[in-house]
Amino acid sequence: MSVSSLSSLSDNETPLRSRRNDIKFNAFEKYDDKEFRARFRVSKETVLYLDSVFGSTIKPLTKRNRSLQPVDQILITLRYYATGSYQRVIGDIFHIEQPSVHRIVHRVTVKIANMRSLFINMPTAEERLEVANDFYAIAGFPRVMGAIDCTHIKINSPGGAQSESFRNRKGYFSLNVQMVCDAKLRIRNIIARWPGSVHDSTIFNDSPLCAQLERGDFTPMVLLGDSGYPCRPYLLTPILNPRTPAEEAYNRSQIRTRNPIERLFGVLKRRFPCLHYGLGLKTTNIPPIIVACAVLHNIAISRQDEVVEEDDPLTIVEEEIMVQPSNETNQNFIVRTSLVNTYFSG
């Protein structure tokens, strides 16, 4: 069943005798601001903002006492993102049946993911100077509009003939998710649909963002990536065998300046631990959750929501760089060589 069909079902279809949310639960009253953010990963004000954006579209069709209001549905979804467990949500929130939690999570996830175009965009022409200045302030690397990398999100084996394509090089099943961020850790681009065995450079080469860069839509701005990507005029990578002080200085600056993408993955997975522990759902239902978490991350940054963790804070360790054999042409080296000679030779 698709996400859209799941989201169209109503939790009011659950038989009355099986409903367990007889006692109303008011998280806004029960928790202070810090406890609320620890449990739901965003502030009370952000929850009310989400309700104002799409709450009217998820109102229950009936006015029965036990119907879950939009704010309740948003809280249930956020608690799932914070735990990755339907059972923990059921035990914590509203005491409703698991099938209702399942439907609510998918319904609200679709609504949040549909806000993607409002909150996840590459820097506009007006924004690029500020973004570049933020990156330049890190380690003196010029004209950067984003750092790019991929991170793996654990999933269950999808089964079927194609299941092994989801097994990554670490041996577990995953989706390989590409993101671009700026120096303030805002997510500027996301692709969340590729099996875990697919290489980072393949995802990038197939992306609309790559086509935009090839057309020169962002010239003279560049992205910074690790050695898993081929060096191109618009995607600058480390020099694998630096021979001069200038090349070594370039590498130091490049590595420090692209560090925000590594920090982003840690912050995102700490804020929404379901992305760290894994998502035990149908594979087709997982990309919208990843996108929804990315949207919420950017909303939280814009609203200055701090990440408040519960008693067992996560330690996130990203995978090491996978160096791809070089098949680069001299044309692809021109921009990088020019930067080395202009900015790093002194």
TrEMBL record:
Protein keywords: Cytoplasm, Hydrolase, Metal-binding, Nuclease, Nucleus
Q: What is this protein called?
A: Putative nuclease HARBI1
Listed GO molecular functions? hydrolase activity; metal ion binding; nuclease activity
Q: Does the keyword 4Fe-4S apply?
A: no
Described by its record, this protein's role is as follows: Transposase-derived protein that may have nuclease activity. Does not have transposase activity.
Please give an example of a GO cellular component term from this record.
cytoplasm
Record domain DDE Tnp4: where = 148-298
Q: Member of which family?
A: Belongs to the HARBI1 family.
